[in-house]
Every structure is written in structure tokens, then in C-alpha cells.
Amino acid sequence: MFPNIEPLKQPAKGTADMASSRAPGYGVSEHRGARRLPPRAYYTAILVALAPMVMLFAAFGSSYIVRQGLSNDWREMSMPPVLWVNTLLLILSSLALEGARRALKNGNTAAFKRYWSTGTVLGLGFVAGQGVVWWQLASQGIYVHTNPSSSFFYLLTVTHVLHLLGGVGALTWVLSKTPRLRVEAGRCVSVDVSATYWHFMDGVWLFVFGLFLIGR
Amino acid sequence: MSAGHEAAEEHAVHVHSPPQGFIWKYVFSTDHKVIGKQYFLLAMASVVIGLTLSLLFRYHLMAWTPQNQFLMPDTYLQVLTMHGTILVFMVLTTAPLGGFGNYILPIQIGAEDMAFPRLNMLSFWLTLLSWVVLMVAFFVPGDAGGPPVSGWTGYAPLSAINNLKTKGMGLGQSLWVGSIAIFCLASLVGAINFIVTILDLRCKGMSLMRMPLPCHAWFVTAILALLSFAVLLAGGMLLLLDRHLGTSFFIPTGVVFGSEILNHKGGSPLLWQHLFWFFGHPEVYIAILPGMGIVSHILANFARKPIFGYTAMVIALNAIAAIGFVVWGHHMFQSGMSPYTAVAFSVITMTIGVPSAIKTFNWLGTLWGGTITCNSAMLYSLGFVSLFVSGGISGIFLGQNAVDIYFHDTWFVVAHFHLIMGVAALFSIAAGSYYWFPKMYGRMMNETLGKLHFWLTFVGAYSVFIPMHILGMWGHPRRFAGFDYAFLQDPMVPSMQAMITYAAFMAVLAQLIFIFNFFWSMFKGALAGDNPWNGTSLEWSIPSPPPFDNFAGKHPVVNHDPYEYSVPGAAKDYIMQTDPPEARPTDVPKH
Fold first, then answer.
1. Contact B116, A38 (CB under 8 A)
2. Alpha-carbon span A109 to A131, nearest angstrom
3. From the centroid of its chain, how far is CA B227?
4. Residue A5: its H or E element
């Protein structure tokens, strides 16, 4: 029945958990049993998952360029200065997450938590800042239907913030699990995966903001 | 079982604990096999609805006179739209990838499940939600706009204007867009799961170039889905904004609605076409590439020969997918695009013929000199090859931008895409059903009924679609609910329409045989055993139906290529992938 089989290895023991033997961020049990995915699967998954996001924003970006070039109803939209502050917040949040990863590698849990929290708060600051931008535009009478330029502005910024909120959720989740994160050779899958997503969203924002600035 | 294997059994670790209770076992299951069956049954229900709708408009077209209209023009378009949407999304996309892919792929690569079982479940439930929303769209009352009329392609500005008072432009159209958006999310989640599973969960010895061809097909199809559904999602979001928030992405200036000029201005319906067809053309391959993999697998099995040119088959699959991403413009030749651009799209389209021909000749090469068993699965696979060639040839006509001036928007186009995308893909689904049913349910399907099903469907399908080519060549336009045939000055047209309708009834009613056979065999079919077809791949090395975690807590080890049939000097006429290395004589060169 099973012509050529080898027994499945028992899950490795003695890995350096921060606290308990459960490993929520690393060997997430997907079934009610104790199935462990190889860590590389999570890295592959996040890289693969970024591809449709690239396509989504690329589709919006090319639509932006085509729609702008097609007709003469496009009105240039001045960019609210708060966007620069928001951009700075987002870049700083990414740097904070990198600081956290470095701290984790050095085994400094307290510093990890401090940096990671800072990154999360800065990310939330970006989201709040985008809210301020929308409020400012609305108070000037600029809505989603006002002009194609404002339509694209709202579309791209809202879509980006929705994606970013997913990232905030991931960062918060990692934070809540910090005492029990499973670290092997200074690396933790949930930390790496959520940071990768966050940096990617940074890049998406720079693309979106750049499109607004250049494509005006 | 040898002493060594018994020892292995002792050390086996059951990493899964099977879920208990009906709900967790069959409804909210994370088991890839249950999810595969769920997708398959959803597709089967959708096929029944979609084909029934086709009978409605076939009868309408046969019986139509200016005085006798079985379906009013707007109802005709609504039925047409739902027929296309249900069959393209809920059948051709779900059954080959979500159904067979989910059930068979993890087993064929020696994994105990998909990489992310909960995401897998989420993917199915999102698909079901999308299906429910689509069905609701179908039953929107007339005073809220009724079901959508803009076709499965949702062409703007028809789809972009929200007007509850006009049939097909109200709530039904909004729900249609919502359904498609949810479907996109479901497909993206599913695609991520497939890709990660293939890349990271293959068992020991299962290198990429040892995977059976269906796995390669599912892999490249998942990549197509990953990249194309995101673009459709983007288009759908823009469409919803146009419909409900007053933007003008797709609605041009000066659209007059009744006696009112709409406020929208400056939008481009062509922008929707670009976004849609950037998804739409790869979607054709999402429907048919898994079929190519499944059929390759079955042809080798029942010809008892190694697949001819395995490496070339893998390269051709990937080439078709890659080229398929840059030919979407051939759907838009008549949209006013520059003739230079059209020529570029046309030339690239023609190049798809090269990998397609490689596949066809390799299928024939596999059959050549083989010991062929013509059972139902094999007949459907041969039928697939036939349809792929017939449908592909008319594609060469339509891919020429000059010829397309004449054929555009005629029945010729309908005939072409039904043969290549619809019927061919359905044939591969039927082939896969007859082939893997014993593994899925532990029993055999009835062969006599299977063959009867095949011949009625095969003759019926060709009798429907070959005459449609002729109608198109006579200049008969598509999407017309009624047409004054005197205009075409050919008395043959009404009788041709009648003949197509009779054939359609025959082909559709023949599917009842399949449905009966499927459910009857589930309970009354002969017991199948582990390997009823003497196949080589991993699914035939485990019990039928497979245990909960596929390999009963052990990891298989692969020692052989996937199509080791009729190897000279071997003990039997097939070597399973999991057979010990010495099962293959060392002095026989690899094919």
C-alpha cells in the first residue's frame, strides 16, 4: 500500500522559544493536530502574495496614466503638504521595524518590543495622517467624483490604507505574541513576514505618491 | 508489506487528527479533499444552471419570428449574461483548478494537505459567497433593474451606468460586479496556496521535473490567476465607483440616457476593455491549461507509454501561459486601435500556435504505437485533443486583424471560443472525473453510461458549434435576440438555427447521464481498489478514497519519473513513482 515511505520526523525539540513551547508565529498549527509547515513556506507565501498587489496597483497606475492622457477634463490637484509628513512617518516606521529585527537578532527582547511598538504607532500615525488629508480635501469641496484626478487620489490612497491596516493588524499580532515568539538563529518567521509586508507597503506608497507628484 | 515498511509504520507520526462531527468534516472542512469535492459539486450545480439557460435561448433563437418572441430582447441578454458568467467563472475556473487541483495536487506531490488549509477553506467559502451574490443578481426584480445585460465581459459604459429604471442597469449589474470582485479575492487566495504548496511541500525525490503534468499545469494556472485576477479586481473597483460614486473612469462625455445627458464625462470605455481583457485572455488559459495537464496524464496512462517529450510539454505549458499574457489586444481589433498595434498583437497571437502545436504533436506522439484502452476517461481525453485542434484553428482566423474585420461579433466568434474554451475545458473536466472518480469515492463509474455520455456529447457539441462557424461566415451577428433572416438572403439560416438547437438539446440532456452515473456510482459502483488504472503517480499508491492525511502520517519518497510505462525489462508494464530505485532496469535509457 505504501511502497516506499519514510516515517515523518517528530517536530524538532529544543528550539529557542522566547518563553513557552508553543510557537504561534513559526510553526502555526493549521490543523487541529500538530502539523508544522517548513518556515520557508511562509516566506514563499508572503512573496507570492505581494505579486497580485503589485498587479493591482500597477493596474490602477496605468489606468491613471491612460485616463489622464485621454481627455481634456483632467484638472491638476495640489498635493496637501501633510502627505510629506505622512511619508516621513511611514519611512520611519519601516526603519523602526528594522531596528526591532536587529534587536531580536541580538536577543534583546525588550529593545525588540520597544522598536516594534514604535513602528506600529508610526504606522498608525500614517493612517491617521491620511485621514487628515481626506478631511482637508473634503473641506475644500474635493470629493471622489469631483475630477478624475481626485477620483484616482481617493481610490489609490484608500486602497493603500486598507492594505496598510492589514499590516497594522499583523504588527499588533506579533506584538501581542512577543513573549512567546519562536526565534531560531536570530530569525522569527512572523516578524520577518510582517516586516516584509510593511516595507512593501512603504514601497507602494512611494509609487503612489510619486505618481501623484509626477503625473500631475 | 515488507519488514522495513512495517518498522516504518511503527514510527509513523499521525500529524493530523481527523475532524469530528458532520459540520467540521464536510462543511467547514480544512481537508483539501473535501474542499476539492465542494468546488466540484459547486461547479456541477453551476453547469446545470448554465446549460439550462443555454437551452432557453437556443429554443428562443429557433422559434423566433417578429411575432413570436419566447424571450424579450432584454431578457435574452440577461439570460446570455448569466449563462456566460456562470460557466466561465463558476465552472471553467472552479472545477479544473479548485476541484481537481485541490483534491489531486497535494497527493500527487506527496503532501498531506495544501500549505494553508484554513486559507483554502476561506477560498472556497468566498467562491460560494460570490456564487450566491451572482444568483441573487439573477433574481433582482424588474423594478430594481433586473439581472445584468452587459455580457460576461461586462462592457462599459453599459455596465458602468447605474439606473434602476432600466432593465439590466440597476441592482443586478452592481451585484454582478460585487460577485466578480469576491470571486477575484477567492481566486487570489487559492492561487497563493497552490503556488506555495507546489514550491515548498513536495515530498522527498519529487523534483519539479518529476511532477506529473497536471501539477505543472495547476502551477502555471495559479500564476496566471495570481497575476490576472488582481487586474480584474482593479477594473471591478473602478466600475463600482463609476456606478455608485459618480466617477468617470469608463463613461465618456455626452452619454444620453432617455432624454437626460449624464453628468459623467471624459471616461473611456476602452480602458475597461484593456483592464478586462488583460484578465480575460489569461482566463482562457486558466480554464484550459489544467485540462491540458489532466489530458496528458490520462493519455499516457491509457496508451501505456511515457508521455512524448515531457520536458517539451512543460516548456510549452509555460510558453502558452507567458505569451497568453501579452495578446489581450486581439480581443479589441475593432475598437479603433492603431493598425500597427493590431499587427503586433496579431503576430504575438500567432506565436501561441507554436507551443500549442508542440503539445498537440506530443499528444499524438504519445498515442503512436501505444496499447490504447478506449474507456470513458480516454475517450474524453481524445475528444479534448480534437476540440483543441478544431477550436484552435478558428483562432488562427480570428487572430488575424484583417480577417477579424469580417468575423468580429459574428457567430463565428461564439463558435470559436465555445469550442476552445468551453467545450474543450468541459471535456477535460469529464475526463478527469471518469479518471479520478475511483480515487475520490473508492468506486468505479459505469463505463457503458460513460461511453454513451461521451458519444452523445461529442456528436452534440460538434453539431452545435460547426454550423455556428458557418452562420458566422454568412455574416450572422451575435448577441441579437432576433434577426430578420431575409436580410442575410439565405434561406438556410433558420433551418441551421433549428439544427443547432436540436443538437444543443441532445448535448445538454446527455449530461443527465453523467450526473446520474456520478451519484449512482458513488453508492453502487464496483469497488475500485487502490490502483484501478495501473497508474504510476502518487495518488495511485494510497487507498481509495485516501485516508484523512493522505499518506497515513508518513512521507512518501519518489524514485522515478511520472510516466514510466512499458519500460523494457521491468517486472510489470508500469513503475510507480514510489517504487524502489531497482524497479527500473539500469540498462534502459531514460526517455
1. no
2. 33
3. 17
4. strand A5-7
- Kindly report the backbone phi and psi dihedral angles of residue A68, in degrees, each rounded to the nearest multiple of 5, phi listed first: -70, -40
String of DSSP letters for B272-341: HHHHHHHHHHHHHHHHHHHHHHHHHHHHHHHHTSPPTTHHHHHHHHHHHHHHHTT-GGGG-GGGT--HHH
3-class DSSP state of B186: helix
* Structure confidence at residue B553 (pLDDT): 83
Minimum distance, in Å, between the CA of residue A115 and any CA atom of chain B: 30
A40 with B5: Cβ contact below 8 A: no
Domain count, chain A: 1
Per-residue pLDDT of B253-309, as tens digits, reads: 888 877 788 888 889 999 999 999 999 999 999 999 999 999 999 999 999 999 999
Q: Give the minimum alpha-carbon distance from B418 to chain A in angstroms, rounded to a whole number.
A: 28
Find the CB nearest B17 among A33, A70, A74.
A33
CA dihedral defined by B344, B345, B349, B355, rounded to 10 degrees?
60
Distances (CA, A) of A52 to B115, B190, B276, B303: 18, 12, 15, 40
- Are B318 and B220 in contact by the 8 Å Cβ rule? The answer is yes
How many CB atoms lie under 10 A from the CB of residue B355? 21
- Kindly indicate the confidence band of residue A215, based on its pLDDT and cuts at 50, 70 and 90: confident
CA quadruple A110, A111, A117, A121: dihedral positive or negative? positive
Whether residue A188 lies inside any domain: the answer is: yes
Torsion region of B569: left, alpha or beta (phi above 0 gives left; psi -120 to 50 gives alpha): left
Q: How many CA atoms lie within 13 A of B184 on its CB side?
A: 24
Residue A54's CATH number:
1.20.120.80
List of chain A residues whose C-beta atoms are within 8 Å of the C-beta of residue B1: 1-2
Question: Under a CB-based contact definition with an 8 Å cutoff, are residues B328 and B134 in contact?
Answer: no
CB-hemisphere CA count at 13 Å for B346? Answer: 19
So what's the ipTM on this one?
0.93
What are the backbone angles phi and psi of residue B582, rounded to the nearest 5°? -70, -5
Structural domain boundaries enclosing A151: 38-214
Q: CB distance A31–B117 less than 8 Å?
A: yes
3-state DSSP assignment of residue B487: helix
Closest CA to B191 of A48, A193, A84, A145: A48
B578 neighbors A3 (Cβ within 8 angstroms):
yes
Q: CA nearest A15: which of A173, A186, A193? A: A186
**CB-based contact A73 B192, cutoff 8 Å:** no
Determine the Cα–Cα distance for residues B72 and B76; give it in Å rounded to an integer: 6
Q: State chain B's mean pLDDT as an integer.
A: 93
| Closest C-alpha to B500, from B458, B465, B469 | B465
**What would the pLDDT profile of B507-557 be if each residue is shown by its tens digit?**
999 999 999 999 999 999 999 999 999 999 999 999 999 998 899 888 899
Cα separations (Å) of B202 from B115, B119, B209, B211, B247? 10, 19, 12, 9, 48
Q: How far apart are CA A48 and CA B219, in angstroms?
A: 12
Residue B489's pLDDT is 63
Q: Grid coordinates 510619486 are at which residue?
A: A210
Kindly report the number of other CB atoms within 10 A of residue B226's CB atom. 21
Residue B195 CB: number of other CB atoms within 10 A? 24
Pairwise CA distance, residues B195 & A213, whole Å = 36
φ, ψ of residue B546 to 5 degrees: the values are -65, 155
Grid coordinates 470513458 are at which residue? B376
Tell me which fold the domain B3-10+30-583 belongs to: Cytochrome C Oxidase; Chain A (1.20.210)
Q: Which three cell numbers stand for residue B124?
A: 472556497
Cα atoms in the Cβ-side hemisphere of radius 13 Å centred on B132: 6
Q: Which residues of chain B have pLDDT under 50?
A: 1-15
User: Are B229 and B245 spatial neighbours (Cβ–Cβ below 8 Å)?
Assistant: no
Q: How far is A65 from chain B (nearest CA, A)?
A: 11
In this structure, the strands spanning B260-261 and B554-556 are unpaired
